[in-house]
Amino acid sequence: MEPEEIAELRTLFVFTPPRGQSWGLTYEGFEARLRERNPDTFIRIDDEGDGPVRGSSMIFGITFDDETLEGFASLEPEGVAVRECNAHLAARVALWLRNNVAPDEVPVMFNTDWGIEEGMEPTLVPDATRPRIVAALVQHIEETGGLD
Q1: Neighbours of 109 (CB within 10 A)
Q2: Stretch 58-69: mean pLDDT
Q3: E-strand stretches of 28-105
Q4: Which residues contact 64 (CB under 8 A, 6 or more apart)?
Q5: Mean pLDDT of all residues in the chain?
Q6: Fewer beta carbons under 10 A from the terminal one: N or C of the chain?
């Protein structure tokens, strides 16, 4: 597959602070950031996570490039994930998290559903332009081995 085709593949992208660090994520603070983008965004907090997150989780919608993505946030483990997302949209999410959620001194890490299944550790989102972030996300997808 060509990198352009890989960039269009959809999977779950997971964004977290580095191990041992924190963004200081709270549902109230995250909701405020989401509502700054779109006051009518969908947000629901589940106290008994039946899905991919144990314990409480926040389920939300976030729109980039006229496409609404479904995501969830968790306080333990701390992080934000978006479902059915391609590398272009994931790069937009990563930049938004870095600029609006993560403190300046705490970077954003990422993984994918495929990387998690392969036991890969989270990778640093490069401090770069969106095209370079997309390239890093594509490289990660290639390294998962799921394209063979």
Answers
A1: 20
A2: 93
A3: 43-46, 57-64, 67-75, 78-85
A4: 89, 92, 93, 96
A5: 92
A6: C
pLDDT at 75 over 90: yes
- How far apart are the C-alpha atoms of 131 and 16, rounded to whole Å? 21
- Position of tokens 């990422």? 110
Q: What is the pLDDT at residue 50? A: 52
The DSSP 8-state label assigned to residue 11 in this structure reads E
In this structure, the number of other CB atoms found within 10 A of the CB of residue 121 comes to 9
Residue 26 has pLDDT above 90, yes or no: yes
Placement of tokens 């490289």 in the chain: 139
CA 73, distance to chain mean position in Å, is: 9
Instruction: Tokens for 28, please give them.
Output: 């109230």
Residue written as tokens 């954003």?
108
